[in-house]
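User: My instructor asked us to take a sequence, write out its structure as tokens, and then describe one feature of it. I'm not sure where to start. Here is the sequence I was given:
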Amino acid sequence: MMRTGAEPTVDAIRADLFRVPTATGARERPESDGTLTWNATGVLVVRLTAGGATGLGYAYTSPAALAVVEHTLWEAVRGRDPLDTRGAYRAMARAVRNAGWAGVAAGAISALDIALHDLAARMLDVSLTGLLGGGRMSVPAYGSGGFTDYSDDELAEQLGSWAAAGLRAVKMKIGSRPAQDLHRVQVAREAIGDGTELFVDANGAYQRKQALAQAERFAAEGVTWFEEPVSSDDREGLRLLRDRVPAPIRIAVGEYAYTPADFRDLLRDGAVDVLQADATRCGITGFGVAAALSRAFGVPLSAHTAPALHASVCAAYDEVLNIEYFHDHVRIEGLFFDGGPFLVDGDLVPDPTARGHGLLLKEPDAEPYRTGRFVAGGGGSG
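Assistant: Let's start with the prediction itself. The structure tokens for your sequence are:
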């Protein structure tokens, strides 16, 4: 709702766009999964102000998202009650009706929605977890990387280091070269030992029967999680695989769920054993919808990537099984932000004393990667 009295309203914005090249230590080259190769990650960081307080949000998204913020979404949130996060979320969804919600617009909406939640928590002098009504002290994390362009030695070193650090599960990419996937899974299993769960992610690279055959081979190596074995749009195929893959393999899908209806459809059609949600794609508001639907359908929820943010969000929801400790985002969030969660005994632990999510942009460190900016209102800096 709009405020009409002396109460503070959202009065300024600063949105910065960054491009961070891929890197793993001294190794700098494109990274690959089953269906995509990339050489950089786009990051949209938004700061909103109201009543002298500033909230920060971010999303991993296309450079086009900055234009959506500037030309469409800023007017939808300007002058709004900063505590009315759901109202702002609905207003932004209406504003992109003709442009389309999913994809680029969803990333822009999510960055603003996260900033609004952080702003509301800071104004109320509570943590983001507290604002959302939860109080878990920590959430299990799983290491995620193992890109398909890695050599056997690189794969073993990365996944083995996570297992040695206490992460109880690790995930690797498959699908670029299906004939080699079983060998790579065997390399990974040898590196992590028998005491660590092994997850695989095809990013929709397989066909249905191909995925079923691979699942039977992977089960013999102790794989317990098969993410996007086929396209997330093929809910019938996902249901088929969910019914037929050998136990204890679980089918996990949802990273491309942008709207509440996307989560509903995956659950209604029985397409998942584990529902995934990404607050940098569906917003914190959408993540809460996914959690409620997960509870209603009796299906656990997993947070996709962005661990620095998701530690605070997921601590509010008992439905959350784990958080993806994704290699690229761990590196970027460590570079860009102060105030992130701690990794303790395989769990992500947010600072319970922080206001909001506690993240602060390290301006000097981020500046070399900045490619665009939009500022409006009373300054928008924080």
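For the description part of your assignment, you could build on this observation: The mean pLDDT is 95. Try explaining in your own words what that tells you about the chain.
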